[in-house]
Amino acid sequence: MPHSTAAPILEVRNVRKQYAAHTALDGVSLAVPEQSIFGLLGPNGAGKTSLIRIITQITGADAGEVFFRGEKLNPSHIADIGYLPEERGLYKKMKVGEQLIYLAQLRGLSRADAVQRIKKWLDRFDIKAWAEKNVEDLSKGMQQKVQFVATVLHEPKLIILDEPFSGFDPINANLIKDEILRLKQEGAAIIFSTHRMESVEEMCDSIALINRSRKVLDGPVTAIRNQFKNNTYEVEGQGKLMVVHPDFEVIEQRERENDHFYARIQLHAGTTPNDLLRYLIGRVEVQAFREQVPSINEIFIRRVRETMPETLHETANALL
Amino acid sequence: MASKFLLVAQREYLTRVRKKAFVVLTLLVPFIIAGFGVLIGKLASSDESTEIVDVRDTSGLGVATRLTQMSTPQLQFLPVTGSLAEAKHNFQKDKHAGLLYLPEGLDVQDPKGVQFFGKGNISLSKEDRVKKALTDAFAELKMQKSGLTQTQLDQLRAKVPLSSVSLDEAGKEKGSNSGVTTGIASALAILIYFFIFLYGVQIMRGVGEEKSSRVMEVMLSAVKPFDLMMGKIVGIAAVGLTQFLLWGLLSWGATAVVVPLVMQDEVTKAKTEVAATSPSANAGSATVADQAAVSAEQMNPAKRANVISGAFEKASQLNIPIWTIVFGFIVYFLGGYLLYGALFGAVGAAVDDQTDTQQFMFPITMPLILSYVLGFSVILRNPDGPVAFWMSMIPFTSPVAMVIRLPFGVPTWQLALSIALLVVGFVGTVWVAARIYRVGILMYGKKVTYRELSKWMFYKG
Q: What pLDDT shows up at residue B298?
């Protein structure tokens, strides 16, 4: 994998965080590669926000270390990190333009630079006319755009987005997605933190799954998928399907009207999908044939079942 | 980082100063103050106005004449003629203060049956003044009977101007003026008290807004909580100082313009009144009018600057430690505000809802209110007493208590100890407040109790 060889932009080593009676993070380690999109996934209450607050230096870890480009995390990195919290919020009685300048200045940008970039971004998001308005006069969606601009205005190298698409309508969500991909193209690394795994899985290059304060699994998405797929293929077609072959095993088969069928067939080791296709072609009319790839959600649940079976029930509930 | 702290303070300052409410309040209050000035001026001048008492003397002893000679600027006697019923009717018609009736056949040795009629209830001070004049008049009559001539009597009647002198520790004499001292003490205490209250509550509200608008998390990823808190406290202090400065300048301006206009009216009115009511205008009433004219003259804007610098000179002639007061006021003003400001900030951070602030507001504001109330009732009367001493030592009460004591003179060691304790108290309070603040600002949906707060002290970063 290309990311694993390069030095990561962010490395979390064995971080622990304890709140009164509750352990929020229990020895979590992970690495975010440069110029990539990283999914920090897990149900609500798993410890994602606690970890983010340590990375953004809002709180400190009780134990363990965090490195930014090989350097121990320190206040000088505030200028390199952009953070969009799950709970969105801006100063309501402040004008959009002034607010953006203020937040950018707090992250080390000069006033002149801030003004320049704000112009560019407001143009791009088509909210230039609102620069002189108070934030409270803006619609929810508009406020979200402003807050996104505030997050990326100082051109951070690491952008952390907590529940990035919540609160955006589909059109604006796509707009934001495009911007995120462009930012990645320009060299930034992005961390998505969300409990809605399906909303980000197609965008992520690598992920870490967190459950009950512990990391369950991490790595590049393709590698994880490959690791969890079990050589199962979905077949749809017409005809009477009768599989009698030592290399193929039918896991599930459903007959439908007009001789239609749906089946899930697992290949035994040493067999290729083409072998199965060849076997089927002589017997039925194949209309669809695809590898069954588990979703991150499924992988997550499977993984939790394997590693922490006692928490499965609660975890599954939290995911809904 | 210092620059971030300044950015925060700057934002707090600018957003508040630009608000409409700030502008309106800043412009309005000076006129209210000027209005009060006029009101007080009117009240004061009405208090000093001459009261006229009619005297119907049927005794044939010449008491009326003697009383007329004894008239003071405050109290004048006017002999009248006619029957008692007429006199009773007339003094009410003329709006005079009262009628003194001396019956026929009054015995000098045993003057029984003298009556004083007044309108409504006769105040003790009025009765006292009349009684005093009457006693003196009869004393003179008796003396004349025992053989003294009128010239001798005139020589006996002495006016003694009394000027109070206080001795300082070195035995040096200085003028003392308890009125000025009390005035300065009260003004300083009120200023500190209101400043802490008005702007402390603003700190609390500001933190509450940041919390409820959820902007806090964004802020905290860029600024240390301590910088955020102190930036807010300092920014709001600057707002307050700006407002007080503008109020001071504007009310000075407004008073300089408005009061002389009104007072000029009063003076002319007073002059004509006095002239009209006492045709036999004696030396006393002329002085009243002159004095009023002089005080109106002093209100002239051109001369105001001289009055202020003159006040400083006067204060240093009197036994008032002017530089200690200036120094102490700045120290207690800032120290008290910062100490309470930090606590108000912590309360704002601890609660979700503005309505929940009550339970925490009470213990914070109690020492402040206590020092204010006791300050005016106890400390002002006995600025060196035990209550005054202890309250000026405790950091929570010393900002108000000590400034009340300052004009009366405070031993240097007490002042030094009090300031040292204030600094310790301030550092301790800010430490506690910063911890509550740091935990509280990211805590939502939790009903905060004192027990909970005490736990927050020991949370790790």
A: 45
d(C-alpha B74, C-alpha A200), whole Å: 91
Q: Is residue A301 part of a domain?
A: no
- Give me the residue spans of the domains in chain B: 51-152, 176-456
Do A234 and A222 reside in the same domain of the chain? no
**pLDDT tens-place string over residues B408-420:** 888 889 999 999 9
For position A221, which CATH number holds?
3.40.50.300
How close, in Å, is residue B431 to chain A by CA atoms?
17
- Between residues B122 and A121, which one has the greater pLDDT? A121
Task: Report how many Cβ contacts below 8 Å link chain A to chain B.
Answer: 61
The pLDDT tens digits for A177-222 are: 999 999 999 999 999 999 888 877 788 999 999 988 999 889 998 8
- Which residues form the domain of A278? 230-291
d(CA B342, CA B346): 6
What DSSP state is assigned to residue B379? I
Average pLDDT, chain A: 88
CATH fold of the domain at B51-152: D-Maltodextrin-Binding Protein; domain 2 (3.40.190)
Residues A203 and A167 in one domain: yes
Q: Which residues pair with A234 in a beta bridge?
A: A264, A290
pTM > 0.80: no
Closest residue to B7, CB basis, from A78, A105, A150: A105
Helix B301-317 with B283-298: angle, nearest 10 deg = 100
- CA B27 vs. chain centroid, Å, equals 22
Q: Please indicate whether, in this complex, the C-beta atoms of A83 and B218 are within 8 angstroms of each other.
A: yes
Stretch A230-256: mean pLDDT, rounded?
88
How many whole angstroms separate alpha carbon B446 and alpha carbon A254? 52
